[in-house]
Design brief:
There is one protein chain. This protein is an alpha/beta fold and about 625 residues long. Helix content is about 60%, strand content about 5%. The strands form two sheets. Strands 3-2-1-4-5 form a five-stranded parallel sheet, with helices on both faces. Helix 3 packs across helix 11 and helix 13 packs across helix 17. The longest helix has about 30 residues. The protein is elongated and about 90 Å long.
Length: about 625
């Protein structure tokens, strides 16, 4: 009991440490597992592990095949959750570079890493290509923490983010298929019977996954499952599919749950987000337990097995040769610059799915007596730990060296996607500024996307925004919602990360009527609240520019707009085309130079009135 409780406690502590230090959680989890497992045999009095996952006659948490069964069920849930995140529309929309990375890049890694493993370690072709299939996977759980605080051009961060998300289930699927191909061949020549068995695995895996996905979706849509049972019923169905598929075709369970997740993830289910959040929370707990157990289960002999120059050579070939070649070929003819390709080629940490499936498949093949199977788990763990450590410690420095590190974040994040926000965002986009709208109203986000404006359907009270590496180039925050409390919360929570150059919000009714209460983060002017902004857009949904002569001319126009509810000044545009947000409160007036323009929305200024005022 003490060991089991200790694993859970240590796992959650590792997750917290990883969050605090902005590291991938897999790093402290595996290190803790090694410390209480094989490394513990070097410092304990009796030479035993502090945590022994498998019963050895004296101690151990799982008797017989208990650990193997627990790992199998856990991996099935993790892979199902990964499948839920894979959307057909996302694959179509991510662009040719990412599409090539998850196809051409995957093939290059699979072939080249397999060849390297075969010739360096003299492993069989089956084991070599299983190893290469396992290290295809990067994964968002390792990419996101590494890149979270590196300001990058959006194109670069987008490629890395979507490669990790899309290749996670694809890489897992490839690894499952390779393992099943090895299994039916039983290490011998792949006869006609073996190929038939492999076909059965494909048939039953896809059939069970597809059928049960539609059955569960039907039950959810028809409200056959009460809301409070939805998550646990879904979990039980995943486990049922895994076990039942395995009964009909041995080793087809993992394929079935990946297919089931992909099918459900592409359906219009009313509770899909809630189901995904539950699976994510469950995956965090399972991963915390799983990787301490898996690392602790490694023996010191397994570590010594790869403690040689061959391991260093294999690591160097995969990281410094195979990965960059895959990236450069995949990005051939794209808009990415050479330095951007170099950075993407440098950042390729392997993640949780790779390590988890490696331990599962490695233990299965060892039990079957497959020659060289003892290399699978330690080699994959070496690649995972090595790439995560390398990228976590050098990604920021390498970004500076190759010149992709943004010294100034000019992107703009707008909270609220109302008609006014969409109009402002479209103007910013047309003036070559990276702008992102966030709103929890999917309809508003869909309207923004139809205008060609980037939008994210998200709740600012959740932590998903702070983990979004596509927002790394954002340096300005504008809170434009109708709710003053939400606007304040956005400034307080997101201002530090996304508003390093300026965080602004609309003034509310009380502040508009009392100039003493106007805060420094007030936006546009003392007289412009949400109601005035929306009314101006409703009457005249247009943004105009007017040339400025001097500071006095600018102030006269602002004064006119303050008295006219249909005009709202929003930006100053300098002679080079750079835009500056107009704050409602400014201690240091912006100098007005030749070529400056005032950008405003609503009706056009009356030029006669303007000339009269000058």
């Amino acid at each position: 009991m003490l060991e089991l409780a200790g694993i859970i406690i240590l796992g959650i502590i590792a997750q917290w440490v990883a969050w605090r230090l902005k590291l991938p959680a897999i790093l402290p989890l595996i290190l803790i597992g090694l410390l209480v497992g094989p490394i513990a045999t070097l410092y304990t009095a009796d030479g035993s592990k502090l945590i022994e996952p498998i019963w050895n006659g004296y101690k151990g948490l799982f008797p017989g095949d208990g650990l193997y069964n627990f790992v199998s069920l856990s991996i099935s849930i993790i892979l199902f959750e990964g499948g839920l995140t894979l959307k057909r529309a996302e694959i179509r929309n991510v662009g040719p570079v990412i599409t090539k990375l998850i196809t051409v890049g995957t093939i290059i890694t699979f072939v080249c890493a397999g060849l390297a493993a075969h010739y360096i370690f003299d492993l069989s072709w089956q084991i070599s290509f299983l190893f290469s299939a396992l290290i295809i996977v990067t994964g968002p759980t390792v990419i996101t923490p590494i890149l979270r605080n590196i300001p990058l051009k959006k194109d670069v961060s987008t490629v890395l983010k979507w490669e990790g998300i899309l290749i996670d289930p694809i890489g897992a699927l490839v690894a499952v298929l390779v393992f099943e191909f090895i299994s039916v061949g039983e290490g011998q020549a792949f006869t006609k019977t073996a190929l038939i068995e492999f076909g059965k695995i494909l048939l039953f895996g896809t059939t069970f996954g597809f059928t049960f996905a539609h059955a569960l979706a039907f039950a959810i849509k028809r409200n056959f499952i009460p809301h409070y049972l939805l998550n646990v019923v879904s979990l039980s169905v995943v486990l049922l599919v895994f076990v039942e598929s395995d009964v009909f075709a041995h080793e087809s369970g993992l394929l079935a749950v990946v297919v089931m997740g992909m099918v459900l993830g592409n359906m219009n289910l009313p509770n899909l987000k809630e189901l995904l959040y539950f699976k994510e929370s469950l995956s965090v707990l399972l991963i915390s337990i799983l990787f301490i157990l898996l690392a602790a289960n490694i023996n010191i002999d397994d570590m010594l097995l790869i403690y040689n120059w061959k391991t260093a050579l294999l690591f160097a070939i995969i990281v410094f040769l195979v990965r960059p070649i895959g990236v450069f070929i995949s990005a051939w003819g794209s808009h990415l610059k050479v330095n951007e390709k170099m950075f993407i080629g440098w950042v390729g940490p392997r993640g949780i799915v790779a390590a988890g499936i490696a331990s599962l498949f490695g233990s299965k093949l060892i039990l079957r007596g497959e020659p060289g199977a003892e290399y699978i788990t330690p080699l994959v763990f070496m690649i995972v730990l090595g790439t995560v450590l390398l990228n976590a410690t050098t990604a920021r420095l390498f970004a500076r060296l190759v010149g992709v590190f943004l010294t100034k974040s000019e992107g703009i994040l707008i909270v609220g996607a109302s008609a006014a926000s969409r109009l402002i965002a479209q103007y910013l986009k047309d003036n070559n500024r990276h702008v992102v709208l966030i709103d929890n109203n999917q309809t508003n986000i869909d309207k923004a996307k139809k205008l060609g404006v980037e939008g994210i359907a998200a709740d600012i009270y959740s932590d998903t925004l702070t983990d979004n590496i596509e927002l790394n180039d954002v340096g300005y925050l504008m809170a434009l919602t109708a709710n003053s409390d939400i606007n304040r919360y956005a400034i307080d929570k997101l201002g530090k990360q996304f508003g390093e150059n300026g965080a602004f919000r609309l003034v509310n009714g009380d502040e508009m009527n009392d100039s003493e209460r106007n805060q420094k983060e007030g936006l546009f002017s003392q007289t412009d609240d949400f109601i005035k902004l929306m009314e101006a857009v409703r009457k005249n949904p247009t943004i105009h520019e007017i040339g400025l002569k001097d500071r006095e001319h600018y102030e006269s126009l602002v004064e006119i707009s303050s008295a006219d509810d249909d005009i709202v000044p929003i930006f100053l545009k300098d002679a080079e085309g750079d835009l500056k947000i107009i704050p409602a409160f400014s201690q240091e007036p912006e100098p007005i130079k030749k070529g400056y323009k005032l950008v405003y929305l609503g009706k056009e200024f009356d030029l006669q009135t303007d000339q009269a005022s000058n």
